[in-house]
From TrEMBL, chain A:
NCBIfam families: phosphate_pstC (TIGR02138). Part of the binding-protein-dependent transport system for phosphate; probably responsible for the translocation of the substrate across the membrane. GO terms for molecular function: phosphate transmembrane transporter activity. The lineage of its organism: Bacteria, Bacillati, Bacillota, Bacilli, Lactobacillales. This is Phosphate transport system permease protein. It is a multi-pass membrane protein. Its main location: membrane. The chain crosses the membrane at residues 20-44, 90-114, 126-147, 153-176, 209-230, 277-296. SUPFAM superfamilies: MetI-like. Residues 86-296 form the ABC transmembrane type-1 domain.
From TrEMBL, chain B:
Gene3D superfamilies: P-loop containing nucleotide triphosphate hydrolases. This is Phosphate ABC transporter ATP-binding protein. SMART domains: AAA (SM00382). SUPFAM superfamilies: P-loop containing nucleoside triphosphate hydrolases. The gene is pstB. GO terms for biological process: phosphate ion transmembrane transport. CDD domains: ABC_PstB_phosphate_transporter (cd03260). GO terms for molecular function: ATP binding; ATP hydrolysis activity; phosphate transmembrane transporter activity. It comes from the Bacteria. Residues 20-259 form the ABC transporter domain.
Automatic annotation (TrEMBL), chain C:
PANTHER family: ABC TRANSPORTER PERMEASE PROTEIN YQGI-RELATED (PTHR43470:SF4), PHOSPHATE TRANSPORT SYSTEM PERMEASE PROTEIN PSTA-RELATED (PTHR43470). One of its GO terms (cellular component) is plasma membrane. Belongs to the binding-protein-dependent transport system permease family. CysTW subfamily. Residues 62-280 form the ABC transmembrane type-1 domain. It comes from the Bacteria. One of its GO terms (molecular function) is phosphate transmembrane transporter activity. It comes from Companilactobacillus suantsaicola. The lineage of its organism: Bacteria, Bacillati, Bacillota, Bacilli, Lactobacillales. The gene is pstA. This is Phosphate transport system permease protein PstA. InterPro entries: MetI-like (IPR000515), MetI-like_sf (IPR035906), Phosphate_PstA (IPR005672). It holds the Pfam family BPD_transp_1. It is a multi-pass membrane protein. One of its GO terms (biological process) is phosphate ion transmembrane transport. It is found in: Cell membrane.
């Protein structure tokens, strides 16, 4: 066997380079999987301790309206009802999405369908910049502009669901807009051409053809926006008032899951019920983000061009 | 499309020294059987053309010869090079590719300087000596007939070259590795006629030192430059013979129709 | 009502919406910049924060933000590269790839406060690192990794397959082809994504409140010994960042000039992020032009 024949049949430096490279990649991937598993495990085990260790009933936790982890109620159960936070979180999220969607769609239609190049060229970077503005800055503006404004008009303290909604509205507007633009642009050109060729006006084409075709993408965009709103902590915490009370109206101080967490977790002692109850709130947050994530996947599977 | 009996074929015996040969090559893309029982012997220091309509499997077959289909398709059968079956799973594909180089349909120089395009793989192969690197750079560029055009701009980005120059750079990049065999997959199909004729001249010259196997859809090109020609149809090799014979006296009806333009 | 009329009305509605949104955006940017910029002074940027009196600056917070940013990138870039390379170059269509993609998606969908709390639980409490820059950098890594991974994967995928085939046909290993040919060609995209993510890291606060902490101890900027507790480089010290500072002075602090500090700090934050955004575009374009040799 000559030298070349031998080389052809034995491993070389290149072979080992590949082993090495693959090893590194698997290491990184493994790290990510481990990390996600750890997060899920730690938050779940901490969050469930309220129910397993402290014997709080899940049903009570989700439906009672009194949050007073230090005390017990008349039947001797710890007084942790998370309903106020859950209701507030869902309220601000849904209201913000409801408010932001028409605006986002309007801008998205403008950018994808009207698309004077100038408009897109100016709007695109501005929207990207808005996505990039830190949430504390939004919170600060909320605190110094929105809250006094609400106080001026409706009275009260100004803190509450309405202020939270308005701040979140601005925060998720760019998210929903840019994802909607992508899904509108993904609608094939010939859909529009076919519709216009049949004598439809531009609006008829947009409304009856393009928007319908882009519905899965737009839904995904809205869900991403809601996920951002639901998980947002500081901006909301700064304007919502942070009172763990059942919201009576849109302008009374309330507390979301995230705001309760950021306010209290540093003031409780690890392993005690007040602390565990907060981890249960974190678990709800985690589950909610998983559910929204699955929803996005589900929509993605059903609606493809 | 006309129907031909695909089980019938004419494969001539090669009496010259063989550089590479295939035995019962089958290629599958998933469930799709793309190449059927390909048996060919490629003579040394000759140019062999693989011709056929698009989808006939000629490119697929070519890419098997240096294992470029590894990730894309399943390839069964034997490919013999220096009496080693290089299609065996434990064969070192990196060594195979060093000896059997490839040039692709579209020029694909690296986004590096002209010099680095040639020397990059060499350096990775342990050629460290500056003198030798320069030497190889010059020789391979000369062999690919590109030296005179680029010798003053060796450190310019390769992407600034014209399409034809880029393709010759790719040829130079391959031969800088001093392979035995050069595989070319329609190397001139994306180029203008002048660049094409330059590439053809280059290949003619190279065939003095290298065994060349070229896929082409251009029949004139095949007849101009190659010594042997294989005609592919629907994954079968229908005819393999000296180029002159394939074009002037084809043995098979399908070949006759194809080279005379009555095909399909 | 006929179709033409509806079309006209729709036009008016859309233009109105766009105008409203643009005004809103300009108002936000304008508010921050007009309120904040006049208060930014050399003194503000270079003096320490004051807890009970006015006139405090943001020197330490600004440095902490930058230091955390650098550490976070040092930790997350290699992992993101490895994972991105795996997903674009090695991953085949199977359950394992699905698992990875799902993991990355889950990680990216987690609220940053949850990521922060996890970091708090694991690093601050269980591993006993305390509130420290290191804990903060790791928490920010978790927060940054999914986006970075996806960005790297997409940039690598954008490199034409022909480049990989060229490398392979020369007998180079997949690893060499990826790192020496594909990766450099993908660099403009990766760099742009990296700088944009740097902007996100710079402004993040929720993940840091309980990991890097809410206090900025006085440090000695002349002490280069990273193990010394007074060194500005010591990764084990707590470090309040600029974004956390804004949150803190607005919610818990008793500083009399809280409003001034927040508006000036917000302006600084926005300006830095603006620079990152523009820088990303500029550098990405420039590198792209250099690589493709277009003028």
């Amino acid at each position: 066997m000559d030298k070349i024949q031998k080389k052809l049949q034995t491993k070389s430096k290149a072979t080992f380079q590949d082993y090495f490279g693959k090893g590194i990649c698997y290491l990184c991937i493994g790290l990510i999987i481990l990390l996600v598993t750890c997060i899920l495990y730690f938050i779940a085990s901490k969050g469930l301790a309220t129910f397993t260790q402290d014997k709080v009933r899940v049903f009570d936790f989700l439906t009672k309206t009194n949050w007073n982890p230090g005390a017990v109620d008349s039947q001797g159960h710890p007084d942790v009802g998370a309903l106020p936070m859950i209701v507030t979180s869902f309220s601000v999220t849904l209201l913000a999405a409801l408010l932001a969607t028409p605006f986002a769609l309007g801008v998205a239609i403008f950018m994808a369908e009207f698309s004077s190049k100038k408009g897109t060229k100016v709007l695109q970077p501005v929207i990207e910049l808005l996505v990039g503005i830190p949430s504390v800055v939004y919170g600060f503006i909320g605190l110094s502009v929105v809250v006094p404004f609400i106080r001026e008009i409706f009275g009260g303290t100004g803190f509450g669901i309405l202020s939270g909604t308005l701040v979140l509205f601005v925060m998720i507007l760019p998210t929903i807009t840019s994802l909607s633009v992508d899904s509108l642009k993904a609608v094939p050109m010939f859909y529009r051409q076919a519709s216009l060729a049949l004598g439809a006006t531009r609006w008829q084409t947009i409304y009856k053809v393009v928007l319908r075709a882009a519905i899965p993408g737009i839904l995904t965009a809205i869900i991403f926006g809601m996920a951002r709103a639901f998980g947002e902590a500081l901006a909301v915490q700064m304007v919502i008032g942070n009172a763990a009370l059942m919201p009576k109206n849109l302008i009374s101080p309330a507390s979301t899951l995230t705001s309760k967490l950021t306010t209290d977790i540093g003031n409780t002692v690890m392993g005690t019920l007040p602390n565990n109850a907060l981890w249960s709130l974190a678990l709800i947050l985690l589950l909610m983000s998983l559910i929204l994530n699955m929803l996005v996947k589900f929509i993605g599977k059903r609606g493809r061009f | 499309m006309k129907e031909y009996n695909l089980d019938d074929s004419y494969i001539t015996d090669i009496t010259e020294e063989s550089a590479l040969s295939t035995k019962d090559i089958q290629v599958f893309y998933g469930d799709n059987h793309a190449i059927f029982d390909a048996n060919l012997v490629f003579p040394r220091f000759k140019i062999t053309s693989l011709i056929g309509a698009s989808g006939s499997g000629k490119s697929t077959f070519l890419r098997c010869l240096n294992r470029m289909n590894d990730k894309i398709a399943k390839v069964d059968g034997k490919i013999l090079y220096r009496n080693v079956d290089i299609n065996a799973p434990k064969t070192n594909v990196y060594e195979v590719r060093k000896h059997i180089g490839m040039v692709f349909q579209r020029p694909n120089p690296f986004a590096k300087s002209i010099r680095d395009n040639i020397t990059f793989a060499l350096k990775n192969n342990g050629v460290k000596d500056k003198e030798e690197l320069n030497q190889r750079l010059e020789t391979s560029l000369k062999e690919a007939a590109l030296w005179d055009e680029v010798k003053d701009n060796l450190d310019k980005s390769a992407l600034a070259l014209s399409g034809g120059q880029q393709q010759r750079l790719c040829i130079a990049r391959s031969i800088a590795m001093r392979p035995d065999i050069l595989l070319l997959d329609e190397p001139a199909s994306a180029l203008d006629p002048i660049s094409t004729s330059k590439i053809e001249e280059t290949l003619k010259k190279l065939s003095e030192q290298y065994t060349i196997i070229i896929v082409t859809h251009n029949l004139q090109q095949a007849s101009r430059i190659s010594d042997y020609t294989a005609f592919f149809h629907l994954g079968h090799i229908v005819e393999y013979n000296k180029t002159v014979k394939v074009f002037t006296n084809p043995k098979m009806k399908a070949t006759d129709d194809y080279v005379s333009g009555n095909f399909g | 009502m006929n179709a033409k009329k509806v079309d006209k009305i729709a036009n008016v509605v859309i233009y109105t919406i766009v105008a409203l949104v643009v005004i809103l955006l300009l108002a936000i940017l304008g508010y921050i910049l007009f309120n904040g910029v006049p208060d930014i002074s050399w003194h503000f940027l270079t003096s320490a924060a004051q807890s009970f009196s006015s006139g405090g600056g943001i020197r330490d917070q600004l440095f902490n933000s930058l230091y955390l940013l650098v550490l976070t990138i040092i930790v997350s870039l290699p992992i993101g590269l490895g994972a991105g390379i795996y997903l674009s170059e090695y991953a085949s269509d199977n359950w394992f790839t699905d698992l990875i993609r799902t993991s990355v998606e889950v990680l990216s969908s987690l609220p940053s406060v949850v990521v922060g709390l996890f970091g708090y639980l694991l690093f601050v409490i269980k591993l006993n690192l305390g509130f420290s820059i290191l804990s903060g950098a790791i928490a920010l890594t978790f927060f940054n990794l999914p986006l970075l991974t996806r960005n790297i994967e997409e940039s690598l995928r954008g490199v034409p397959n022909l480049q990989r085939e060229a490398g392979m046909s020369l007998g180079l290993s997949n690893w060499k082809t990826t790192t020496k040919i594909v990766l450099p060609a993908a660099l403009p995209g990766i760099l742009t994504g990296l700088i944009l993510s740097a902007g996100r890291i710079f402004g993040e606060a929720a993940a840091l409140i309980y990991t890097a902490g809410q206090s900025a101890p006085t440090v000695d900027y002349g002490n280069w010994n990273i193990f010394s507790s007074t060194s500005f480089l010591n990764p084990m010290r707590p470090a309040e960042t600029l974004a956390v500072h804004i949150w803190k002075v607005n919610t818990e602090s008793v500083t009399p000039d809280a409003h001034l500090i927040s508006s000036a700090s917000s302006a600084v934050l926005i300006i830095v992020i603006l620079i990152f955004n523009l820088g990303a575009r500029f550098l990405g374009n420039k590198l792209y032009k250099k690589i493709t040799a277009t003028k």
